[in-house]
Design brief:
Blueprint (H helix, E strand, L loop, with lengths): L6 H11 L12 H6 L3 H15 L3 H14 L4 H11 L4 H14 L4 H13 L3 H14 L4 H13 L3 H14 L4 H13 L3 H13 L4 H8 L10 H10 L6 H17 L3 H13 L7 H14 L2 H6 L10 E6 L5 H9 L4 E3 L5 H8 L12 H4 L3 H15 L8 E4 L8 H7 L4 E6 L2 H10 L12 H21 L4 E5 H6 L1 H11 L46 H7 L6
Helix pairs in contact: 3-4, 3-5, 4-5, 5-6, 6-7, 7-8, 7-9, 8-9, 9-10, 9-11, 10-11, 11-12, 12-13, 13-15, 14-15, 15-16, 17-25, 24-25, 25-28
Length: 556
Amino acid sequence: MNNRLPPAWSKHLKVASGPQTSPVPGARPPLARKLLPDPSDEMLLRQALELQNAERFTEAEDLCHRVLARSPNHALSLYILGTLGIDFDKELAIKYFARAAAQEPNNPYYQLSLGEARLKVGDYPPAITHLQRASELKPDLVEAVCWLGTAYLDFDKADMALPLFEKALLMNPNHPLVRTGLARTLMSLGRMDEAATCLKEAIARRLSVPDAYNSLVDTRKFSTEPEELRSILDELNNPAISPDESSQLHLAAGKVFNDLKRYGEAMEHFLNAKSLKAHDFDIDVYRKRVDSIINLFDTEFLASKAGYGSRSETPIFILGMPRSGTTLAEQICSSHPAVHGAGELTKLGRMAASIGLKLDEQGTFGEPIRALTIKQSQALAAEYLSNLRLYSSGAPRITDKMPHNFELIGLVGILFPNARIIHCRRDAIDNCLSCFFSNLQEGLSYSYDLRTLGLVYREYDRLMRHWQSVFPGRIFENRYEDLIADQEGQSRRMIDHLGLPWDDACLRFFEKVGSVRTISRWQVRQPIYTSSVKRWKNYEGSIRPLINALGDLAEL
């Protein structure tokens, strides 16, 4: 398993099992003596920890399995396997953590790591349960309080996250998770000035400095050069910073220079930021995936699944390429009193993976869904609706705005034939450039390279054309430029597509009370503005690889 053990988890292991580098008897705390009763198990797991620390993950995994062969429910061995697998297979890591926690339910570190892992896959209610338990078991465990705050924030409950981060600030004002977490919460609540103050204090204390700068520049749009810009550039000269930290600082500098209309300098920083990322996206594999989706979800197959799933009209799927206007569309829709905005949910993607909608070496893509029965489809739809209802128990409509659900419209069509779908489309070059300028989440590494971005956009466009052909009239295309040119007209058409009566609150989406959890936090709290339309022309001389890759989709 080729992954790096997160530093926080490594710390937990040291606390739970004693020093990783010293096998001296008696050096470990009492908890470790309880966890490692068998001397031979202790020796193997100490070796596993040392191998893990040296990033020899496969060898560490083998030693853990040797312990499990003798003791199938050995808690610490299960726990170490969870930490080894978290960046490789999160679902499997969750199973290991859950088994460890079941063996020792009063171990706060097992509860903490299980909660963190649940949080990473967007499984918020159980994440909250385990993180609360970790906090109860060890009240001074500041990581548990911070991750619990993060879970509430991601669960659209920023009002509950705020007192947790304020508590953590009192517990340990110098912990790296505290001030950035507090700032994220304040930003989600629209309290940008307070967030900026919090981030400046983090920087002054030298806490998560690159991350803090990256968030700080998103609290406002700059019209004059801020003093922080010189500080960011100075930080980039620090030889001790890691490639990831350097990338964050370059993105922060690029954002400021872009605001200041110093486009040449901005592009230099954006290119440097992305050059420090691992360009591991395989466009050929992605093309095969799109081919497989199109071949599977043809008209004949979809007709064979008519009458499957749920008749519910509750879900609204807002999708499209990242940075295509999905957050703006959700804010407009969720300003309607009948609509609750749940944000970017992982549930549909996790369900799709569980029923074979991913490529594998055996070429079995889609076989489980071909064999799907009506009863199974109803169970899957009920599972998704149950998860959706966690965000609002009574709203007639609830949005899921995970952009890459555009890959799963076929599954949506089977499970929810009455669900509304809003496809957000934007000028191709502007859309791709916005992705390139953003620090997108893991799994979107195609955004690190201009040419690859253009090629992926072409595949997205090809797939959306297929969905429009097999689901005629079901997908509302919300073009960003149309919304900018005619906000009320386009908003009315969008609400009409949802089958709802018009409400003027949808024109005042920027006044909506509540949290916003994406990188569009600042933008969606402003009235409609036009500065993002044809922004790419400011960079035309530097983005030829993107324009060439887009081909006829580039509107020059």
